[in-house]
Amino acid sequence: MNPGRNRKSGMRLRGPARMAVLVVGTVAILFVGVKIFTATKSKVTSSDDGQMMAAAQSLIKGDQIRNPRGDVQKEVQLIYRPGGEAVESDKGNAGHAGNMIRKYEEEESDLREDKAGSLHKAHPESKKADSDQGYEAEDNKGLPDIKMSRLSALGDKKAGLSQQGDEAFQQQPIQQNMDVAGVFNEPAIPPVAQVPEWALDVQRLAASTIIAKPPTLPFIPPAKLVHLDLKGAPPKISYFKQMFPLYHKLGATGLLIEYEDMFPYAGELQDLAAGNAYTPDDIKGIVNLARENQLEIIPLIQTFGHMEFVLKYEKYIAYRENPKTPQAICPRMPFSMKLIQGMLDQVIAMHPGIRYLHIGSDEVYHLGECPTCKQYMAKGNLTKEDLFMEHIVKVASYVRTEHRLTPIMWDDMYRHIQSEVFLKYKIGDLVEPMVWAYHPNLTQFLHAGIWDQYAKVFKKVWVASSFKGATGIDQYVTNITHHLENHLSWLQIMTAYKSAFSFQGIALTGWQRYDHFAVLCELLPVATPSLALCLQTVVNGGIDPNIVNRVSNLLGFATPINITLGPDRPLPESAPHFPGGDVYHEAQRLYRLDAWAHGFEHLGNFLGFLTPYQLRRNFSSVSSLEAGLRQYAPLVDALKAARDDAAEALWGVYDGHTVAEWLEQRITATLDRLHAMKRSADSLIARRTWPRRPLDARPPLQ
Ligand SMILES: *[C@@H]1O[C@H](CO)[C@@H](O)[C@H](O)[C@H]1NC(C)=O
Ligand SMILES: *[C@@H]1O[C@H](CO)[C@@H](O)[C@H](O)[C@H]1NC(C)=O
Ligand SMILES: *[C@@H]1O[C@H](CO)[C@@H](O)[C@H](O)[C@H]1NC(C)=O
Ligand SMILES: *[C@@H]1O[C@H](CO)[C@@H](O)[C@H](O)[C@H]1NC(C)=O
Ligand SMILES: *[C@@H]1O[C@H](CO)[C@@H](O)[C@H](O)[C@H]1NC(C)=O
């Protein structure tokens, strides 16, 4: 695939340096494992402190390498405070605005110089899910269940499977290049007894999601779209060049492309394009690559809510429904429609031959708020629903009549609207809704009432699942289990309602940011294994260990992908071979280091001796702080090494702006936080005598 792109194997170091990294890595992994283990405990007493320090010291010295793992766990568990659960909740806590790598390094070297003198001064379930909590399970009956064993029921042709060559398949060497056409013709299903240990996770998943009943053939939607959310972080065209063939191979039939500020808007609209937007030639490149790989493009343009990238500018303040926020456009201003038409015209012009256009329109948080709209509603005795519908009719009609395209739109705003309102506006003849839901259990999440309602209005319906960017606003590694469950659930829903609707296709969404202003969540390369597994789940009507095995081979994993997210297993020596596999690898590495950093920050040594109270009064335990700080250097070194390697990997996929953003949010912010702790601790450590209690009431911080 990408010859000449030599895998770093995550380690460019040699000899002792390499060993040091290994030691540190192992310590990190052990720490994390124990963190999770101890999260269930409820109390650590102060008498543990001595042991804590001893354990910390021995760990840092690398003693644990010679110990059996069990012993180390026993030791280390003392180091961890209970209630340190939720590594996630602390992640991305970038409160200390980091200022890019250089700044940090300057400070670091300052610190090193200081040292000579020995004394120093001192981030919803998913947004989508959240916005949707009104839907409770009312009717879970009548859903057919899709058996995991449907693969055989499906027949070989459909799933592209044959029943021969199990052995050969299992022993198949890792694919070293991406040119593995027909990998999905690789055979099948090992007898149950031979199912390897790792496969049990997948089987459990399948079993928990799919209740055995007489087998129903799953409904497999004709279109399978990969959603490319490009908001403020454009992957290189050379990356797409490597990925589009892979998407095709995995069974994708199209791309739902959401350029947002990455489209080269021109003329009056040129402000809408970010400074690092694609050029018209880039768009041509994308269009050609898609065509070469038989991927139908459906552009997505927000035309109602989520127009932050447009309305954030001063010149568009008057277009806002609520002048305080650029979230939604006012549908009643005469110039609003002109702006939207301009955007549609430009994007459509650069995508010759398209059949569909997605007009977005989800999460319109501001509706009927501005004086113009209020007045209009009052005059015509109209509701906000009327206001919403009128705007949709205008935009969708424009797309249909002026451009002869079929408009698709997100469905969420429809979920509370009565079918009479739809009928009044003849919405069913105008647009095809795309019902999105990223929850792992959709019978719980989208109640049957919604489907009954839609069935009265729409014949053709799309659905949208998610393969990333839906489980945490600052999530940077993907929870594959979550997304697989979501896809299995969608298969169930579509199978249940296949006679009520013509399901046109499924868009596998991969959110890059929750909105224009938000941080980056999982990057495309990081979520490629999730995408591949989710796509194959749709294509095959289910998931089983063989599919995981085949996908793992195709993506060049040395061992089968573990669908369970957890920082507690060793990081593989080398990155998987798929394009961007090194980015995936670096994110996994950081996930482990972050768990270590979290553990460090929550050491009893700091929780007990490095509080604002103590800092204000310069009153703390030198030995406790010194013991805690022993982990500082190895942790910081490991994070810096990870940052360097991540930078190099990210450069293969993204531009410098994106690389810098990710590094600052994900790594430099952590380093800054650790650095601040170190400075504070050092300043407390410098003291040699302490005052009599009681201490001052509340002296100012130095
Ligand atoms: C998969 O990963 C999880 C979380 O790290 C771990 O608990 C589990 O043992 C792993 N499964 C296998 C089979 O390696
Ligand atoms: C999904 O939710 C429904 C309703 O709460 C429940 O009956 C069903 O067992 C759940 N399915 C799974 C796989 O958890
Ligand atoms: C306004 O519309 C509501 C229904 O939407 C209706 O019940 C009411 O009678 C109408 N009022 C007037 C003044 O037309
Ligand atoms: C991953 O998702 C599954 C299914 O939603 C959930 O049960 C599990 O807790 C998640 N794991 C992590 C580490 O967030
Ligand atoms: C604490 O006292 C030491 C020694 O006098 C001094 O160097 C340091 O700056 C002080 N730290 C704080 C936080 O006041």
UniProtKB/TrEMBL annotation:
Keywords (A to Z) from UniProt: Hydrolase, Membrane, Transmembrane, Transmembrane helix
Alphabetized InterPro entries for the sequence: GH (IPR017853), Glyco_hydro_20_cat (IPR015883), HEXDC-like (IPR038901)
Enzyme Commission code(s) on record: 3.2.1.52
Membrane-crossing segments per the record: 20-38
Record region (Disordered): 105-146
Glycoside hydrolase family 20 catalytic domain: residues covered: 274-425
Reactions catalysed: Hydrolysis of terminal non-reducing N-acetyl-D-hexosamine residues in N-acetyl-beta-D-hexosaminides
Protein family according to the UniProt entry: Belongs to the glycosyl hydrolase 20 family.
Name of the protein this chain belongs to: beta-N-acetylhexosaminidase
Organism from which the protein derives: Priapulus caudatus (Priapulid worm)
